């Protein structure tokens, strides 16, 4: 095992610390002589630390201003107080920890004759500026979205919640990446039992690397093979603030522009942030439209298939005539016709996601209009089928959360297969399996279908429709497992 | 107490109404109008006393015994040997009821919307589905009951559409023959069956205060729904046509033409189908619970065995005439058994309580 405790010899200390830092060209080891007598090393990684700031605020004062002899740890405090232009520093005598600090952009000073290293905060703040979210646009909400800088992201939250109960617990995940993470919650709002559950999973994550919130989510969820997201990813600080005020916790991962909110419930993935800014009736209309869109995505295609294949008698006569006319000369059976169109749309969508914006738009036009038109003119698909598939695809765009939209979109295919095999009964069992699967799921001990199942009538003010904003801002009972337990034992 | 088998007071309401409302929605009107003609709906109200008595007696029995679980309570009241027999009988009761519900669904679906599919396939798939639903215990069954309850409200809404279209002379005179009202009551037993689940689940309620009220509310809700549907069916079609049909309410919903889907039938079957799955799941929990208690086989394993038995029972009840004749014959005995058990258990529990208080 590599020795980790620092000693008095600063050359030995440099070797010890170097064991934990990659020996690349940007690892700067600047030897200096303090007050003309004491030797020391200034260590930092150029790029991660701000080189100009290190030179101006640390090296210059050490070389030209420090006029005391540094022989013990207390002298370092004296130097910090009198000469250095840094707001905070700390001492550490563990070489591994010091190495980790260097890798996170801090500057380390090791002085000959002192057993501890001086760690100064010099992280290079150069990151992408705060920009508007591209995946979660809002009309009335804030234009800010998170960046890759975890400190800036936390500041965005602190700026919005000026409460002493806002807690930020920092931790590191990833044996190789040593990614800085933070768990954020409102201490006086979050349920203690829920917080313990979250902490027990979040703070114990062991992973070789941690790159994004999506990866982190998979490390902390209980059912990785379940189709539905068990935590909510968002790029928007206002959404996180709203969730924190409800009694949830947020997980920030360094270098990731999105934040993970836990726990998550099924219903909230369909609630847009604008719902709370708009007039009650208008926002409820939008919300109901969204739920109808989900039902459309799931069952419109299968119902159309069933009616064509097995239950033509259920079409009113006039409609039947139109459909028969549109299907004349179509060689493909309805199932393959719908499946082919659905797959075609998926291919176009997947292609569009990876392409730059202008090219993506071109792809959408070529795909949506040209291919669609060509397919109907070539008698490969009927106009009616194209219409049904197009409505289904447009409906998927109404789901505000990207991950949930992907899950719902995927479900079209098993539903379609069930409808082909068992007709109306297939749709029925598909829908029921979905309900059972959702009801069985939980997110950090909170039932996924809450507040509907189990019913928490107090929270019904913000489910399929939202009531008065005063009621919406009440802390949801469904996020308080300890409170529910107390009520049960009455 | 197994954590997966505990429910809240509200969930008790949802489970009880869920266990009852099922096949009866579409077929009950036929049975009661055969005996009581246009007064059939009154017979349903009178028969509504049965489920209410069931939930009250179940609650009182367990209250007298400090809400100990079923097997323990039964052993205290009847001894080990009789408990074994009673538990097996309860399990048979639920297996039979669930089999009848599943085969009822299969018969109805293959009669109306999925004529191309074999009813045996429907029975098999439904049994699998019910297994998936109930394998994790009462908690999941109860949560799903809550969700599906909101769909039940739509079952209420469909007949509202027909109120205006009916002819009031179809339900007049309100009572023709008082005797026929009572002869129609046994035909409602199957529609109200499932309420016996309260015998198993009352001790599993975590907040007992108000649980009796929740059970009674579930029974009243069910009675109102059945009465309303039957009344509207008679109002719209008259008792003669109603009594001749196998599924009068289904016939009713299929009579109106609406855009795109032609009539209410597919919409109704979609809602009602979910409801039937839930009814079967509640009964499956009851069957598995008693089976597990009787055989001491763990719940999850019992769930597999009872699913297989239910599938076999369901297959035996195809086609519909077999199912209805069998349920007509068996139901009075099952109801009789349950009623006797409840009354005997109540008297014994009361005796025990008094004796304990004297000590």
Shape assignment of chain B: globular
CATH fold descriptor of chain B: Amino acid/polyamine transporter I
Computed structural class of chain B = mainly alpha
Number of discrete helical segments of chain B: 15
Estimate percent helicity of chain B.
Answer: over 70%
Radius of gyration of chain B: 20 Å
Largest interface, counted by CB within 8 Å of the partner chain's CB: A-B, 33 and 42 residues
Output mean pLDDT of chain A.
86
Strand order of the largest sheet of chain A: 1-2-4-5-3
The structural domain count of chain B equals 1
* CATH homologous superfamily classification of chain B: Amino acid/polyamine transporter I
Number of separate domains of chain A: 3
Query: What's the mean pLDDT score of chain B?
Result: 90
Largest sheet of chain A: 5 strands, antiparallel
- Could you estimate the helical fraction of the residues of chain A in percent? 40-55%
Main pleated-sheet profile of chain B = none
Element-level helix/strand string of chain B: HHHHHHHHHHHHHHH
């Amino acid at each position: 095992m590599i020795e980790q405790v620092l000693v008095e010899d600063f050359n030995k200390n440099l070797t010890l610390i170097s064991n934990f830092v990659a020996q690349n060209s940007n690892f700067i080891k600047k030897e200096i002589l303090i007050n003309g007598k004491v030797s020391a090393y200034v260590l930092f990684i150029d790029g991660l630390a701000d080189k100009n700031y290190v030179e101006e605020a640390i090296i210059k004062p050490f070389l030209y201003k420090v006029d005391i002899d540094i022989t013990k740890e207390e002298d370092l405090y004296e130097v910090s107080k009198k000469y250095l232009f840094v707001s905070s520093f700390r001492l550490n005598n563990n070489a591994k920890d010091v190495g980790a600090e260097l890798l996170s952009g801090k500057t380390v000073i090791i002085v000959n004759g002192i057993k501890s290293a001086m760690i100064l905060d010099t992280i290079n703040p150069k990151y992408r500026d705060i920009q508007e979210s591209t995946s979660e646009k809002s009309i009335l909400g804030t234009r800010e979205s998170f960046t890759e800088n975890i400190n800036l992201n936390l500041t965005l939250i602190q700026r919005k919640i000026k409460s002493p109960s806002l807690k930020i617990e920092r931790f590191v995940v990833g044996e190789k990446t040593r990614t800085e993470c933070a768990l954020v919650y409102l201490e006086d709002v979050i349920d203690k039992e829920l917080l313990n559950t979250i902490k027990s999973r979040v703070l114990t994550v062991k992973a070789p690397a941690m790159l994004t919130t999506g990866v982190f989510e998979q490390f902390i969820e209980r059912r990785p093979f379940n189709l539905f997201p068990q935590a909510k990813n968002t790029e928007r600080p206002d959404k996180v603030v709203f969730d924190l005020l409800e009694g949830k916790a947020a997980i920030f991962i360094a270098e990731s522009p999105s934040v993970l909110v836990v726990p998550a419930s099924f219903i909230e993935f369909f609630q847009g942030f604008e719902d709370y800014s708009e007039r009650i009736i208008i926002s409820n209309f939008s919300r109901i439209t969204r739920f109808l869109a989900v039902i459309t995505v799931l069952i419109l295609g299968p119902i159309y298939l069933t009616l064509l294949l097995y239950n033509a008698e259920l079409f009113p006569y006039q409609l039947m005539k139109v459909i028969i006319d549109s299907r004349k000369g179509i060689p493909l059976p309805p199932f393959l016709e719908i499946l082919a169109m659905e797959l075609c749309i998926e291919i176009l969508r997947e292609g569009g996601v990876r392409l730059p914006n202008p090219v993506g738009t071109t792809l959408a036009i070529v795909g949506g209009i040209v291919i669609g038109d060509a397919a109907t003119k070539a008698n490969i698909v009927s106009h009616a089928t194209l219409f049904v598939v197009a409505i289904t695809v447009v409906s998927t765009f109404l789901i505000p959360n990207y991950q949930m939209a992907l899950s719902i979109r995927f479900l079209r295919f098993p539903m379609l297969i069930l409808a082909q095999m068992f007709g109306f009964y297939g749709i029925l069992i598909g829908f029921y399996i979905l309900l059972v699967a959702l009801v069985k799921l939980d997110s950090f001990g909170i039932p996924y279908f809450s507040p509907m199942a189990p019913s928490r009538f107090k929270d019904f003010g913000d489910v399929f429709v939202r009531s008065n904003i005063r009621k919406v801002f009440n802390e949801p009972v469904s996020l308080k497992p300890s409170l529910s337990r107390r009520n049960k034992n009455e | 107490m197994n954590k997966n088998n505990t429910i809240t007071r509200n969930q008790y309401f949802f489970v009880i109404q869920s266990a009852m409302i099922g096949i009866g929605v579409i077929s009950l009107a036929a049975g009661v109008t055969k005996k009581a003609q246009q007064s059939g709906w009154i017979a349903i109200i009178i028969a509504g006393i049965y489920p209410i008595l069931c939930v009250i007696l179940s609650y009182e029995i367990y209250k007298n015994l400090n809400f100990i679980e079923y097997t323990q309570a039964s052993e205290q009241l009847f001894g080990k040997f009789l408990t074994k027999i009673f538990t097996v009988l309860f399990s048979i009761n639920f297996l039979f009821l669930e089999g009848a519900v599943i085969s009822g669904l299969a018969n109805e679906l293959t009669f109306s919307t999925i004529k191309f599919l074999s009813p045996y396939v429907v029975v098999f798939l439904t049994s699998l589905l019910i297994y998936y639903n109930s394998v994790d215990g009462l908690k999941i069954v109860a949560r799903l009951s809550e969700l599906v309850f909101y769909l039940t409200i739509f079952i209420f809404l469909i007949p509202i559409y027909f109120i205006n279209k009916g002819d009031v002379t179809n339900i007049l005179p309100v009572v023709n023959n008082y005797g026929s009202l009572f002869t129609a009551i046994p035909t409602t037993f199957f529609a109200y069956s499932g309420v016996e689940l309260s015998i198993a689940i009352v001790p599993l309620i975590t907040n007992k205060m108000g649980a009796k009220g929740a059970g009674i509310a579930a029974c009243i809700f069910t009675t109102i729904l059945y009465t309303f549907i039957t009344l509207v069916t008679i109002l719209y079609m008259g008792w003669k046509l109603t009594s001749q049909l196998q599924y009068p309410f289904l016939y009713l919903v299929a009579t109106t033409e609406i855009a795109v889907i032609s009539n209410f039938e597919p919409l109704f079957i979609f809602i009602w189908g979910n409801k039937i799955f839930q009814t079967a799941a509640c009964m499956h929990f009851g069957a598995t619970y008693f089976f597990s208690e009787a055989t001491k086989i763990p719940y999850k394993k019992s769930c597999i065995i009872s699913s297989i038995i239910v599938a076999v029972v369901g297959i035996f009840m195809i086609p519909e005439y077999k199912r209805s004749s069998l349920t007509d014959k068996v139901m009075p005995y099952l109801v009789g058994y349950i009623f006797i058990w409840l009354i005997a258990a109540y008297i014994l529990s009361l005796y025990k309580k008094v004796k304990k208080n004297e000590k």
